[in-house]
Fold this protein.
Amino acid sequence: MREGGRSKWVGTLVQVVGFPILLPYYFIPHRKAMTPKPNSTTAAAVEAPPIRLLVCAYVYLGLLMAGNGYLYSVGFEYLPVSTVALISASQLAFNAFFSYFLNAQKFTPLIVNSLFLLTISSVLLVTNSSSERPAGVSARNYVIGIVCTLLATAVNGLFLASQQMVIRKVLKRQTVRVIIDLVMYQSLVASIVTFIGFLASGEWKGLKREMEGYALGKASYINTLVWTAVGWQVSISCIIAIVFESSALFANVVGALGVPVAPIAAMIVFHDKMNGIKGISMALALWGFLSYVYQQYLDERQSNAETKKGPTFGV
């Protein structure tokens, strides 16, 4: 929050605590469920994973989620919103990197091109510190913001790759209920961890003073927290709806459109500056994102072709 809100743990909490808004998804009918590809008999025969394994998976993802949120909160405190948005685009590079080890994802020329472009995009932003540092932010804190945002992006990439691994190896099916369970329980763990961090850090002692010092007033402070929490979870629900009602490819296209939109919106709302280096960084990030999306399109087209062809059996 740019009008006086400085609590990093509160900023983290609003990113994870709004998960109850997803409860209606349990009661909404959906057109299709994504199940393992071999055949319907195999999918129906999948047994529920052991409770202990499920708990470990949810706790692991929840810890990553909480850590990711805290690191982003630090980044937002010391960096312009547009800079954080552009650095965050490199999460695809980290996702591809971790997916190579966790999900056996192949490094195709398009993926390598995407990794290279997204890396260069982030490097340009790091070297542009002299003109990008907000007023009142020291050079040390600016570097901390850059490092924490990069770490947050890396943790987010690990989080997404780990989610894919949990769905593939632990849950072994992709029905709406299974995915909503995953989101709900990992968010619950993240909320508990973040609340413990909030209490342990002592930030709660200054919460009343922060609310009273908020430029738009105490009521506006509370409304901002509530609607930010709702906004984070609405964005998650939109992704779930896109994935289950259309395709993961379309979800990535929507993400690609967000690369130029987020910095431009930050310029309008938060009056962030847009210089030549940031413009080049945004163009490279968009190019890298589209390269990644095109590889997803090729993979999805090949997968659909194999599904229509049906399984082949050796002699």
User: Anything to note?
Assistant: Confidence is low (pLDDT under 50) at residues 35-44. The chain is about 75% helix and 0% strand. The longest helix spans residues 276-309.
